[in-house]
Prior knowledge:
Layout: H1 16-52, H2 61-95, E1 103-106, E2 109-116, E3 120-125, E4 130-134, H3 135-138, E5 143-145, E6 153-161, H4 167-177, E7 190-196, E8 201-209, H5 212-232, E9 237-239
Helix pairs in contact: 4-5
Amino acid sequence: MDVNEAIDTNASDDDFVSLTKRRAKTSIETRFNFIRKTFIPLVIFISVLLIAIPHLPAISGPYISLFAGAIAVLIGIASKPLLENMVSGVVITLSQPIRINDTVIVDDKYGTVEKINLLYTVIKVWNFRRYNIPNSKFLQKEFENLSQVEEFEWVHVEFYVSPESDLAQVKQIAKDAMRTQFLADIEPPSFWVMELGKDSIRCWVAGWAHNPAEAWALKSSSRKRLATRLAKAGIKAQMTNNRVKVEGNHPVSDENLPFA
């Protein structure tokens, strides 16, 4: 497994690679143990049923129908959530819209797929909490899988500068700010003027990262370097209101922050 954490940190559980591989191995072992434990009882049940079939004519038909119907209704009502989640878990496992170790955004929660059971899926959120989603509900959700991308992850930082700013200087500062250790060395950063407003100029600076974790770190470090260098150069600037939600190639917020 090629394992990458959604967010690079120095936390105590930073050995994410070995931990994820152990959990993946345990998950596989658990599924085969489940099959082994349920196989023998299932065979016994089917055998008993086949043995009892020749004796069924001796029992009155209405009683058999009444008993079977009552059992079926009770089992159906009691096991509906269980069956829905189990079937959904099988569908998720076979179709693989997500896999263990994928970086996803579900319900505005950014994190890593930590576990996929028969009944629920566990997302390790960016703040190291676990978000448990029943499989039946997960199939009905819209989510973004940031790991299903090309070999590299494209990210950008959006910011605003005052209209009197020297755009050539802004361009140089923005591109230099993105040249951090997290920038993939496949092409230099790009700079665009996205909008000329009455009170501000909307700019983008963008680059490539190797994976979602480094893309998150690239945006964070670039914002810090950009704000510091623009302030040092005496250029009035404001960043967009990027919330905890992190997206690789779409603006997190469309809110403009013009100058007074």
